Amino acid sequence: MQIDRYSRPAIAMHWLVALLIVGGFALGLYVADLPLSPAKFKLIAWHKWIGITVLTLAVLRLVYRLVNGAPPLPESTQGLMRAAAHAGHLALYVLMFAIPLTGWAMSSAYGFPVVLFKLWQLPELVGRDEALGDLLKSVHQWLNWSMAACVAGHVAAAFKHHFVDRDGLLWRMSPHAQRR
Amino acid sequence: MRLITALTLATLPVLALAQPIDAAKSQIGFTMKQLNVPVDGRFKAFNANIDFDPAKAAAGRADITIQTGSIALPTRDAEGEAKKKEWFNTTQFPTARFVTSSIKPLGGDRYQFSGKLTIKGTTRDVSAPFTAKSTGGQTLVEGVLPISRTAYKIGEGEWADDGTVADAVQIKFKVALNGK
């Protein structure tokens, strides 16, 4: 059975964002409890740059998807599973925006603005307020654990299709076409 | 009565030298940069003995003592760090001091001061332009003094490397003098 694949740009952006999300998540988790040091400042800067890059790519992906659409879900996915698949993808998109935005706002609230790649200072999303920064930090962390859960579900569902249902679903998002 | 006389005598020499300052409109702050991210701070407690009449600028003088422990930074974490031995070492050096050696007019409302700045036991000659604007019985003195933080050993050990926290720090002062 030959199924519709995602387009090359969609595949490239998917994997690039996947890599950045995993990297940014791990970096954020590691750096959160580090004592202050020059290394911590550097890692936080990289974490922020990764987040803003994800946000930028999320905008591109959303626009691209709205313009070009996405291949339909496999015929075998029906009813509740179809709804769950759509909800899961919607959640991933919402989090791709919400996580960088809360991180950015948290930087503004804490008074450590984001200077992307040491070059461009981004505007402040909220005023200076340490208590608001603490709140945004909690929300940012909570959203990240939600993202981890969604990504786990996303990967589990893809594997279930590919290895249990054997419907070749992973080829939809593979950089290489299925060998026949 | 005797108490009042004693108090008057005790405060008289200070009053004779210095103009009272409007604390609400006066501020000694600074901006440092870490990986090009501007971070603002200030010192909440300082005593300013200033005698400055824009018409007789050359006769003006200032002696400012700053309580280093009153440092305010965007977060409590950063404040705690700044008080440590590697930074201001506020236990051993509770005050920083600035004393003018000369003031000269540059024309208009602009002036240049030269003086000695002592931070963390290190004294350096400093000089910077400032403005003095008189309105409604008050003179607002304002300027920026760029310094090298490492010249005063602010940020020792791993922090001495200016690759993360830049060496250049801008001290921003604003003092509202009552009278004249």
Automatic annotation (TrEMBL), chain A:
Predominant location: membrane
Cofactor: heme b
Source domain of life: Bacteria
UniProt KW Flavoprotein keyword: no
Membrane topology: Multi-pass membrane protein
Keyword field contains DNA-binding: no
Localization: Cell membrane
InterPro entries the record matches: Cyt_b561_bac/Ni-Hgenase, Cytochrome_b561_oxidase, Di-haem_cyt_TM
Domain Cytochrome b561 bacterial/Ni-hydrogenase span(s) in chain numbering: 5-174
Family classification: Belongs to the cytochrome b561 family.
PANTHER family: CYTOCHROME B561, CYTOCHROME B561 HOMOLOG 2
Protein name according to UniProt: Cytochrome b
Native source species: Crenobacter oryzisoli
Automatic annotation (TrEMBL), chain B:
InterPro entries noted in UniProt: Lipid/polyisoprenoid-bd_YceI, TTHA0802/YceI-like_sf
Signal peptide: 1-18
Protein name per its UniProtKB record: YceI family protein
Cross-referenced SMART domains: YceI
Residues in Lipid/polyisoprenoid-binding YceI-like domain copies: 18-178
Entry keyword annotation includes Secreted: no
Protein keywords: Signal
Pfam families: YceI
Taxonomic source organism: Crenobacter oryzisoli
